[in-house]
Design goal:
By secondary structure, the protein is mainly beta. It contains 1 helix and 12 strands. Strands 1, 2, 3, 4, 5, 6, 7, 8, 9, 10, 11 and 12 form a 12-stranded mixed beta sheet that branches. This is DUF5666 domain-containing protein.
Amino acid sequence: MSVQRATFTRPLIAVAMVAVSTLYAFAQRAPVPTRVRGTIETVDSDTMQVKSRSGEDVKLRIAPDIRVSGIAKTSLADIKPGSFIGATTVPGPGGGENAVEVHVFPESMRGTGEGSRPYDLKPNSSMTNATVADSVVGNDGHTLLVKYKDGEKKVFVADNTPVVTFVPGDKSDLKTGAKVIAFVKPLPDGSLEADRVSVGRDGLTPPM
């Protein structure tokens, strides 16, 4: 190898090594959460500390325009054909879907997130937001046929499945002891900001 070629090659090798090291560092970083589920431990004007369900302490900045909604219990009997619902499901026997939880959207939120997609509540879980086309009452629950713009699903909802609905909320609901789901985004400095929070009412843990 000539001196000129070696001189040219060494910088390329160095650049390649730096690129590989950078990619490795990115691969080792923990994924940034999009939701933090847990209990508020402390809160002030612009931050809150949340103890996550898995035990981590997570500090969240509170967005100036944060949106807060309450989560309250409702009844499976209140779900009727025409209701717009969200259901977290896991695969059941025979190709069906078993509901882990169901949340009923008020009419003002009809169409929110319509469709079905993977969800992070449980392994192999999915979230489906759709309109109830039919409800069949069985001995131990309801089987719901739900339809959305790209398809449909049959969802079995057992009698003991948590069923909740959304109610109005505001920033005053963010207080110590509240059970929350915070929807977060990373900021340029590496911190996390909550721009939307669902808060359980009367000690309720939001099940979704």
